[in-house]
């Protein structure tokens, strides 16, 4: 590993600390190095708050060292005014010597403009250091920009004989407590979570974060004919919730009913979520809804738990064409990660 890669790896580690807190912005980390010594570190901590570069500069105890320093940042510094002033302009004002960037931003608002601002000021710029890990870190951000839809994660638990529920739709409990705690961690990290009509009716899920610290995701249910009972937990007005349907548009406290066309409901729903700046979506079931996402190639990642129980009969689990890219043992449950590349 080169010296530049070592410092960029540290910047990526810092960027990861913003997971679940900065969307719809990307996660960004920044390290400032003077004479092979880190003198400042920072990351984007909260959406609407300072970006990684000003946080790292603020951590530098001797600003007089900045003109002889190299700045490592995981994504091209912004050159536009958004919630905060442009970071590229700040680096120019501080007269840093060199900026090393992992990844050029594909956001049209940035897209090379930050690099040009730095170069026009006489600052040396290097790009492409640990580019692939940097892109993977912000795959949700880049999916939103490039595919014009949220990053979609399919998640389900299946029995060892391949069922997601019994014939009466009962599915408790296929996975173990440790696996279920992991799911709550994932909920805290993503923007939205979705279930279909049957899952909402038979499981009555709350779809909130309970066994982990973090924000609750936006709750989404697809109920085309509006047959779900208002007494269900999804309609308790405690957490922002969208009910996509084919009948009406209306607004209540923390509850929106959004009418979709009959022919392309998933495509139209994802378009609406994109407009709401939702960058990531976990689809937790049921089987029919998961199949629809798979059939329409509307997924980026699947996380599948296989527990140790057998149902012998019931509702079959979805099938995926690609092989799992990664597999983990979660205290007896098997977790497989699939990627739709």
UniProtKB/TrEMBL annotation:
SUPFAM superfamilies: Cytidine deaminase-like, Dihydrofolate reductase-like. The keyword Hydrolase applies. One of its GO terms (molecular function) is diaminohydroxyphosphoribosylaminopyrimidine deaminase activity. Zn(2+) binds at residues 51, 78, 87. The keyword Ribosomal protein does not apply. Binds 1 zinc ion. NADP(+) binds at residues 157, 173, 199. It holds the Pfam family RibD_C. Converts 2,5-diamino-6-(ribosylamino)-4(3h)-pyrimidinone 5'-phosphate into 5-amino-6-(ribosylamino)-2,4(1h,3h)-pyrimidinedione 5'-phosphate. This is Riboflavin biosynthesis protein RibD. It comes from Echinicola pacifica.
